[in-house]
Amino acid sequence: MPAERTQERERERERERERSMPRIRLDLPRERRARLLPEYDPEAFGRMSERIARFLGTGRFLVWMTLTIIVWVLWNVFAPPGLKFDEYPFIFLTLALSLQASYAAPLILLAQNRQDDRDRVNLEQDRKQNERSIADTEYLTREVAALRMGLGEVATRDWIRSELQDLIKEMDERRDGHREPRDLFPPGADHRSDVPDR
Hints:
- The protein has helices at 2-20, 42-56, 59-78, 91-153, 157-176.
- By secondary structure, the protein is mainly α.
- The termini are far apart.
């Protein structure tokens, strides 16, 4: 008896545990878990990197960069000593340019990778379109060939006209009595059934 009670209590606890646990439904998406790291949209980041890479590849960027460096150097050479912020050998300018280059290179590579992906998708779509065009062209070629073969067996207007003229001549000759009418079944022919020959 005590063993049965213990088993019954265990079963009851298991049922309570099952009732207390939320039921997993496969027809609903999972709830988002809290993340420690911030989330970002890779597409938005990719678009931003493409814009930056596009700007870095323009003449306008080169002009602005050149003007900034010239103003930086001139300011730190000719400004009063209390207003200079980067003395010669321009360590801070070197650091700023290195930082800009260290960010520009990965952004340009990311933009190139995205462009390569787009080019790959476009190439695949073009290839499929070409395959469809080739299949359509082959189908149309077969259809035109079939029509040509069919037209070879069709009576042309000139052939029908010549046949009708021959029939008219033959009818005129019969009417005038110049020619004996052709008998389809001559009198000496055997008119038996062809059933045994089959």
